[in-house]
């Protein structure tokens, strides 16, 4: 694929691959295979609206690489989605699955739509239309979707049902993140946040943010959506004080901490910026980055921390719950300032890890209790966190580069194991 066929976000993502490759003795085949998506499909979904009219929506599904197994990745519904974004997200998923040693490659999907403008019936028709359009791409052994931005268990349930209708047999393993009643896994709802929380707790002493008598630990959550909400509550349960939160409609600062019930009520009314209370003040979303805190959790969309606002950050640790929230330029600034960034392909991997657990349970027809899911997730996050931390120490590099080195080493081994014979699978 020519460079000009790759969008700017994918090119930025690939710069992480180049940085990691410098620390490994790689065959040229590895860079060639991982330098572009294996396949990206585009479809036009035409659905009947509630008023009887028809409306078209653009949709994509990308299968970036399947060297280590069937591709895996979420589907997001967002008015600003693009093919470039989908391909970059699929690239990150490829590395995330390798970092966690899951038998998956990376995939991703999207529909360019504002789901808030659709009725429940319209949303269901759109979700089923997506499966109809990409039924030849997805499948329990080929490509397994999951929830992402503005999609949830309900949407996944519709998709699994539609796939079963098209194939003539129930196939719960075709998607993950489903309702528990339809084969979803216990523990999936907060898995992304819980995985990041387990990682932070395990590495706390190494990062200098461990709990100590008399110490106040403060955190900022940028993006109070599903992952951000769960992370804020998990941190608070562990003694952290949440001093700032934001969502797409505003932000608040609260040096004394936040009342989460009041915050949830404000968000339901129209955004976290509507929160009121003692010591709470509404601020510009970028202003929360400058609050005094020991931890910043970007949990919104890509590129929310960039050259224009990175100088505001004072927290010594950044834990990426969002995918690609820090641009490469901002990353360089953070590294130069000695700020530790726990990268997305490790820090938010709890979601895909528990999705893998769900897929395994669906395939074997044997379901685990929530405590077992939590224990397996905790073990996986701690194992890979330690392995990447060891690379940080051994190579003298930042955590993001170390995570990419870790994942790339596994991908390179898998590519080599496939052999050199011509393979039209790519």
Automatic annotation (TrEMBL):
GO molecular function, one term: glutamate dehydrogenase (NAD+) activity
Keywords of this entry: NAD, Nucleotide-binding, Oxidoreductase
Segments forming domain Glutamate/phenylalanine/leucine/valine/L-tryptophan dehydrogenase C-terminal: 185-419
Catalytic residues, chain numbering: 108
BP term (GO), one: L-glutamate catabolic process
Amino-acid positions noted as binding NAD(+) in the UniProt annotation, renumbered to this chain: 192, 226
CDD domains per the UniProt record, alphabetical: NAD_bind_1_Glu_DH
Residues under site feature: Important for catalysis: 148
Binding site for substrate: 72, 96, 355
Family: Belongs to the Glu/Leu/Phe/Val dehydrogenases family.
Identification of the protein by name: Glutamate dehydrogenase
